Structures are given as structure tokens and as C-alpha cells.
Amino acid sequence: MTVDLRSDTVTKPTPGMLEAMWSAKVGDDVFGEDETINALEEKAAAMFGMEAGIFCPSGTMTNQIAIKCFTQPLDELIADQTAHVYRYEGGGIAFNSGVSTRLLNGYRGIITAEMIEPEINAENIHYPHTSLVVLENTVNKGGGSCYTLNDIKPIAQLCHARDLKLHLDGARIFNALTHTGDKAVDYGTYFDGISVCLSKGLGAPVGSVLLADKATIKYARRIRKVMGGGMRQAGFLAAAAIYALDHHVERLKIDHAHARILGEELANLSWVSHVMPVETNIVLFDTVEPAKAVLAKLAEKGIKASDTDKHRIRFVTHLDVHADQVEYLVGVLKGM
User: Structural domain of residue 320, as residue ranges?
Assistant: First the structure.
């Protein structure tokens, strides 16, 4: 048996999703003529209480476009030191926007208004101009940790008071919503930009949507073009995303349940030194021996996972990990 826990990006389209893709109405999206992409953008914007959206090939692109829209060269943004926009987007903050980054040390990637406020630079020619705060929900490096809207509200209030923009890297936002019980539509009250990834927990093959007001999205289309993100007849991909939004959100609680089972089992194993709290679909745990050695043993049993540090391994559950595979994996873990 093979169990692939490297990421929730490894999923394959379901039969229903493939059928939706096959029947999609398409056109030239750069001319605004792809009906299915237009429908996806409108649907996602309405879900999150935003005015408009733009479909892009990846979450990295939507995040980088947002940063470009909300900053000017010589500005500075504030984010947690684990943030995907800083660690895993190829240095794009500096390359694309000419912006520096002020990093904070939050708890499992979660930062607060009290942490942010003293890091906002005063107006001084020696300092970069602070213009943007970026949050991530859920936090990948935090083991799928979540912000609630009650956590976000004081940050948004601070940003408004200090004339800062607030962007959300919502790579796994629906996992966060499933865990917290918050409503997606309420997010539009607090954020200037929201990146919603459709190819992770929701299982679409490609794509993210950047949501913002109409003026920002108009400018974002220019930036997307500059970045080479105009995809022409990409309605086939948008159809998969719409199907995912309609059919794959409710089932995320299954992935969370599978992750909790794995976390509980790992906590009882002698070769595991620590397991991070499991909130959503990511399990981070530390191993006594080097992680690569453990991964090699798992690979012999058909289990694929990834290491995030010398002694840390990540499991990510998703729609292609089923109950029988979790049971098999637990047996393998106990036998090591």
C-alpha cells in the first residue's frame, strides 16, 4: 500500500471534478471572456465578502501580486518568521516588490497586534516605510495552527489606525474555517487582500484566487500579466476549482480527524520526541534519530512524507488519504 503524506497538493481530480472540467465553457481570460473563470472569481469574492477576484496559477503568484499591489519599493512588510511569503516564495518579496521584511516570532506562526505595533517604523528617512502586514491561515510551519476572527480583529483595527494594508495568505483557509467555525464571508471585513488556494485541501489541480476591492484587482490584472500569469482558456481549471468549493469543503473534517489519529498515535511512540498540537490536517513531529533516516524506513513501507528540519517530519492528510490507509500507517508507525 502507498500512502502519500508529503502535501495536500498531491491529490488527483475526482471523477466529478473531471466531469465538471470536461464540460466547462471557456474563452480568452486575458480578454475577460472565459465564463467559467469569471464565475469562479465572482463566487470566491462573494464567499469572502470581497468585491472582486482574479484567478492565478498559484498561491505564490496571488501572494506576490498582493504584496506588489499594497507596497512601494523601499517599503517594509511585517510577517511571522515562519511565513510562506518569506520562506518559500523564492525571495519574491525583494525581487518583485523591492520591499524589506520585518520578521516576528509568533507562537506557532500566530502573531498579535501587541507584537506588531512596536515594529511599525516611525516616519524617518533612515527607516523603510511600514505599509503591509501579512498573516497566514493556517500556518504551515506552525503545524496547521489557526487564527480565529477574534485573533484577527485587533490586528485589523491596528492596521486601519496606522494606515497599513492587511493581506491574508489563505493557503489552507478552509481548513482554518473548518476548525474555528468562523464564517468566510466575515473575512472581507478585516482584510484588504485574501489569497485563497484551491489546489491544497480542496483538491483542485491548479490555482488560487486573489480577492480584494475592484480597484486593487484591476491593478492586479496588470501585475499578473507582467508575471506571465495570463492563462487564456483556463476555464477547465476554474471548473475544477468551482467543483472543489461546492463539494470538497465539508469533507475537510475527515482530513482533520485522520490527522488527530496520527498525532495521538505518534505521541505514544518511543522514537518520537515531540508532537505539535494537531488542529487541522498537518502533523509536525520531532524524531530521536535524524528525520531522513526515519523517512527512509517509512519509504520501505510505501509511505511518503517530508522533513522540515533535521529531526522534524511533516504528515499532511488530504482527500486521497483514506481510513484504511491511516490504519495501515498507524500499524507501520507502531512497528518501527
Answer: 251-335
Instruction: Work out the burial of residue 17: count CB atoms within 10 Å of its CB; fewer than 13 is exposed, 13-18 middle, 19 or more buried.
Output: buried
Cell (9 digits) for 15: 471523477
Q: Are residues 151 and 256 in the same domain?
A: no
The DSSP secondary-structure symbol of 312 reads: E
| pLDDT bracket for residue 69 (50, 70, 90) | very high
Distance CA 219, CA 226 (A): 11
Specify whether the CB–CB gap between 278 and 52 falls below 8 A: no
| Residues 311, 213 share a domain | no
CATH number reported for the structural domain that contains residue 32 in this entry: 3.40.640.10
Query: Whose CA is closest to 65, among 208, 174, 233?
Result: 208
**Mean pLDDT to the nearest integer, 275-281:** 98
pLDDT in tens, 181-227: 999 999 999 999 999 999 999 999 999 999 999 999 999 999 999 99
Nearest-angstrom CA–CA distance, 60 and 203: 17
Is residue 300 domain-shared with residue 162, that is, in the same domain? no
Residue 120 CA to residue 291 CA, distance in Å, equals: 38
CA distance 90 to 17: 31
Domain total of the chain = 2
Per-residue pLDDT tens over the stretch 223-259: 999 999 999 999 999 999 999 999 999 999 999 999 9
- Whether residues 186 and 207 fall in one domain: yes
Distance CA 281, CA 7 (A): 10
Domain boundary among 247, 279, 300: 247
81 and 224 share a domain? yes
Residue 59 contacts residue 168 (beta carbons within 8 Å): no
pLDDT tens-place string over residues 289-309: 999 999 999 999 999 999 999
